[in-house]
Write a structure and sequence with these properties.
This protein is an alpha/beta fold. It has helices at residues 5-27, 35-63, 78-88, 93-100, 104-112, 120-129, 145-148, 156-161, 172-177, 179-190, 212-227, 242-250, 257-267, 306-322, 342-354, 357-361, 364-367, 371-381, 385-396; strands at residues 71-72, 133-134, 202-205, 271-274, 285-289, 295-299, 330-333. The longest helix is centred in the first third of the chain and has 29 residues, at 35-63.
Amino acid sequence: MITNDRQYKIVKSQVDDFKNALEGLSFTLPANVHPKLVEAHRNAIYSKLNELLDEVNEYEDLKDGKIIISEIDNIDQLPLALIRSRIANQLTQSELAERLGMKMQQIQRYESEKYSSASLKTLIRIADQLKLKLNADVQLKSTEAPEILDIKNYPFKQMFQRNWFGTFLGSYNDAVKQSPKLLAELFSAAGINNFKYSLTKKSIRTGSNLNEFALKAWYARVLLQAKNKEPDNVFHKDVINSSWLKSLAEISIEEDAPLKVAKYLDQSGIRFIIEPVLEGTFLDGAALLLDDLSPVIAMTLRHDRLDNFWFVLFHEIAHIVLHLNENLNAIFDDLDVKIDGIEHEADVYALNALIPDELWRKSLVRFNPSYETIINQSEMMNIHPALLAGRIRRETGKYYLFTDLIGQGEVRKHFEK
């Protein structure tokens, strides 16, 4: 969906490009290409062109007052209704932000992620400003505590084997008998008894098979470790600048780099936690805020590779810089899942922070990836070759390339007790 005039101009330009591409196919058929492939290419262009034209027409109709949005009767309609209502009211993102006492970037971020991180209070406030009437019933279903703490919902045996239940010294069978009590104590100590009902303050990037109970348990464990780990210094967000990021990336060339990362973050006031993945969570990492708004980066090391370690690390740093706030205090990431909004922003930030765009655009590695060019470029940049090899694999989708450059098996060993 187009949300501002800048996007409108970009999409209009894309429409012209696709039209020109269609005209080119009409007059000149590529040599040595099967007609069915040409037809498939033409159909793909048609499909994308029609999609862009629909976006252009909707934006123009909203701006021209041909579409009026005054009331919604389904809460699922609210995010898009807020965006459309703003446009129909002839308000720019900057003007709406000014009326609400917010920064324009906050409105842009809300709209890019379809208001997924906005609190209900914020949504209602914006709707009131846009004179948008909400007419929807909200029903809350109660859940009995024994059901929430039912051992069958959790990877309880795995949690027991990792000694997650404090000073409990009994056998596994004893733990099973006391499971409601042990689970309750774990969640109470972490301060997340109502995790299931506070998901509006959390963002979860993962596939459809997520076990929320397992996620809650993993989150509790990370919080407990973080609360018991005081960093050397108080965190200030402005410490994370280009120089800080460059110095962090350069640690990658050192033999015990993952351990030195932990120390580097600690010195900057960022708690760094390694907690292996629990069954049913599929997590790579998370960015969190404690009650005092101090940040935590947690990683599972699900993929034991240096390229993955560094990308996940910088992705979570991006969330700390760009996204975490009092309305969004936890972001959980499965980076195998492709997604838009804040996750796309974090991906882009991480890639650029590890290898600056201006350098990557003209890098020989990008156009002629080989062992020699990767090694030479990494030495020039003073970073580990895994960072470059990982970027090539990620951008091309060819994950069979450079398998001996990505640091397979070079991360977990540093954190094994």
